[in-house]
Every structure is written in structure tokens, then in C-alpha cells.
User: What shape does this take?
Amino acid sequence: MSTVMVVDDHPMWRDAVERDLAGAGYDVVAAASTGREAITRFAATRPDVVVLDLQIPEPDGVQVTTEIVSLRPTTKVLILSASGEQNDVLAAVKAGATGYLVKSASRDELLEAVERVAAGDPVFTPGLAGLVLGEFQHSAATEVRGDKPTLTDRETEILKLVAKGLSYRQIAERLVLSHRTVQNHVQNTLRKLQMHNRVELTRYAIEQGLDGD
Amino acid sequence: MSAWTSPAAIEVESRLFRALAVLRVVVLVNAIGLTIYRAANFDPPVAALVCALVMIGWTAFVLWAYAAPSRRTAVLVGADLAIALGLLLVTPLVKGPGFHASVPGFWVSGALLACAIHYRWIGGLLAGVALAAVDLGLRQEIDQSIYGNAFLLVIGGPVVGYMCESVQRMALERDEAQRAAARAEERARLARAVHDGVLQVLALVQRRGGELGGDAAELGRLAGEQERELRSLIRGEQPGRGSSRGPAHGMADLAADLAALETGSVTVSGPAATVEMPAHPAEEIVAATRAALDNVRRHVGEDARAWVLLQAFPDRVEISVRDEGPGIPDGRIAEAERDGRLGIAGSIRGRIEDLGGKAELITGATGTEWELTVPRTGVDG
Assistant: This one.
């Protein structure tokens, strides 16, 4: 079973999530209530999955995600966040998180999400799919230089169906694809979004003269 | 008079007394210089020395005495004025009844201003009148410049006193404003902490309630609704975030306006950025979306899940409203339209077509879906 770290500054929440995970057989190796604690404890315990609240004392969840992904790229970050923090969620996903769940999700949804994230599958809510779609549409409309990855028609179609609330199974049925193929497409959109972010960062670095020349 | 004993008022008074200390040294040097220069007019000559020593000694004493707020008593201020009046009164005795310049001269202004600072305009006025009356009363003849000096004493005292009072009042108001700002900041900080905690508890109740089922599930659902409402309230309070009144006049942020339709059973997705549109088409789109959601509630169920997706392209916006209901049999809407029962067709299709857009209803195995497409350009509100 995977090892998990839980990061949340509310003890009540942290305990509830820890209890649920431990009850399902996960090995909760660490818990943290601030970004600083999260980074040190992560380095010490190297868990497979980090269940992360975005609104924690400095450094925030987005920075923690960046740090974790760069320390150990095989660790999966699942964002467990209160509703209505779209911009932060998008930033965390760009930084490398592979899943997002709202805090009001049930225990079963949480356990399913942790299981999928641990297996390397992204966990998308309709809200996150809408944000990712919006991000690609925005850059398609404003992009002059074509150096950023774009979504294929199939990927856009699948993302749209996720945003409209269809499950992977329903999407697979509707498009006559295998469940695995749908998952792969969703995963690709996420990879492209993160690449997107790297292109932006690299471009910024070059523009700012930080590329060493 | 507690306002005058507040720390802010005392601080103002102390600063004015520090400034007055400088002035007192200047007028003392002037008075001593003139006394030495006119020593020949004194009879006996030793009187000049005594007067000078009194002025030097008294000035040194009051510089020390006025430095501490606790020593600024009525006795001190009264004695200050009495010494000044006393030196005026001895002038005819030591310089003869026909004297021109009084012994202390401008040195009396130190006592005058001390009265004005400590007792404000009324103190300045009384001290000014007393000094002017004694000075004029001793003169055998009053010329223009003697009258002018007396007049200056009478108006200078209350003017300085009044200014002192105004500055003290302003300092009090400034302190009050700073205290109010600090209180507001503290309240906001507490509110953030409380809100954050309340939101977490509501989310937890929602989650646990859903797991327990039955009555607890209903409690959980209510908690979830309150959580969303409280969160949108808090976001609304933060300047520059989430408010649909952010865009320029006559414009609306369609993304924010649609997001407001989210409830426990309705999920609204869309881009993170604002989607600016003229206010009129934005209102019509929101109204059409709301009509579609009402329809879901009516035909599928009060708690039926529904998903709203907003996509913004440079030339158009696309809004999808999907539910998992059984769908509407083909031809039913057209039939209703023919029968003159406009219902959803009227309120959704009509609104969208008036904007130059198109509204399509798709039904299938995975529910019913409205697809609304509205051009972004060429539509004027």
C-alpha cells in the first residue's frame, strides 16, 4: 500500500482525512500543518502521495507542490481544497499536482481519488477540466509564436465532457473508446498544461536574461 | 476637561513648551542685553543687576519646570505670570515714572505664551489683558508704539491659545482615527480566522453528513449550502476579486455571473480568467442558463445534479447546461411551441436568438444538454 502525507492547517480536517486513509489501509507516514513543515517532513519521509490543502501558512500549497515535484517527481500530489479557489487550483496543477478534489467530497470519493492518483491517473473534477480548457483556449487566442503545446481535437472533446460532468466510463461509452484511452487523453492534457507552464517559465527566464548568456 | 489630559493633548503641549523654551532664551538674551545697554537709566544702578538676575534665574527655573507635564500646575503658570507682572510693576520704581522701556520688555511674552499653551485661548486672553493693562497703567503717556505692543499682547495670547487648542483637538482626532483603523484591522483579522474555521467545520459537516445518510445527510447538505454562501460573501468583501461589478461600466464578467449559479447540486465550470461582455447579453445568457437549470429542477428533481460549462473564444461564448435526466422525447419542444406553450423553448431559445446566437437541445443516453452559442462581437447591449 502507498505511503501518504496529509497537509492541512486544520487539525480537525487533518485528523478526519488521516483516519479515513489509515482505515483504508494506507500508511500515513507524516502530517503537517504549514508549508514549511510539509517540505521538511516530505524530505524526511518521501511519501508516494501527498494530500495537500492549498490554503496553509507560508509557503502556500502551490509553492509546496512545486517543491515536492522537484524533490521527488514520482510523488503524486492530490489537492484537497475548499471550493472556489479556482486560480490557486489551476496554479497547483500547473506546478505538477495530478489531482483535485473539493473538501466536501465524501470519504469514498477521497479514497478513490487517492487510489487513482497513487496509480498515476489524474483526478479531474468538472471544475478543473473547465479551468484547463479555458487555459488552452486563452493561449490559443493570444498565442503568436506557436511554441506552446496545444490540445488535439480528441483531447479537447474529452476535457469538455469531463467538464460537463460525465464520468470516464460515460465518456468511453459515448466516444466508443476504452476507459484506459480516455484516461490517457486526460493525462496528456495535464502533461501539456505543465509543459505549457515550463514554456512560460523558460520564456520568462530568457526575456529576463536569466538563461546564463 | 479630560480631553486636555489625554496623552495626545499632553504630547502636543510638551512640544509647544519645548518650542517656547527656545523663544524664552531668545527674549531673555534680548532683555539682558537691553538692560546692560540701559544700565545708566537704573536708579540705583544695582537694581539693573537684580532685575537681570531675577530674569535669568526665573527663566532657568521655568525651562526646567515646564519640561515635565506633572510640574505644569496652576501655581507654576500663575507664578510665571506674577513674576512678569512684578517686573513690569517695579519699572517706575527703578527707572523713574517717565520711563520709556519696561524692565522685562519682550521677556513677558514667555509668561504670556505659557498661559496660552496651558490654558488655551482663555488663558492667553487673560494673561494678555493683565500684561497690557499693567503696562499701560504705569505709563504717563501712551504713544503709538506702546499702544501697539499692548495690543499685540492682547491678541497674540488668545491666537496662540486657540491654535494650541486646535492642534490638540487634531491630535486627539488622529489618535481616535488610528485606534479605529487598528480596531477594524483586528476585527478583519479575527473575522478571517473565524470564517476560515467556520468554513472548515461546515465542509466537514457536509462530508460526514453525506457519509452517515438519512437526517444527517440533510444536515450535511444544508452545511454545504451555507459554506458556499459564506465563501462567496467573503470573496465579495475582498477588493478586486470575484465581484461581477469589477468590469468597466456597462460590461459584465460572464464567468463570475455564471459562477453565482453554483449550488450543492449544480457545478459551474469555466476559465479562470474573467470573460468580459457587454452587460445586456451577459444578463440574457445568465437568465437563459437559469431557466435551463429551473427546468432541470422541475423535470428531473429538486436535487438533480446539473453541470454548467462556460467556454470563451475570441469570437463567441459557448455555454452548456447538462443534466442526467431521462431527456425530452424528440419533437416534444416543437410540439409545445406549436401549441403556443412556449415554456423553456420561449425563455431559452428566444433570449439566445435575440442576441444573434443559437440554442440547441441535445438529448441522449447521458442526459439532456442545452448548448448555447452567442457571438461576442457585433452584439450591442
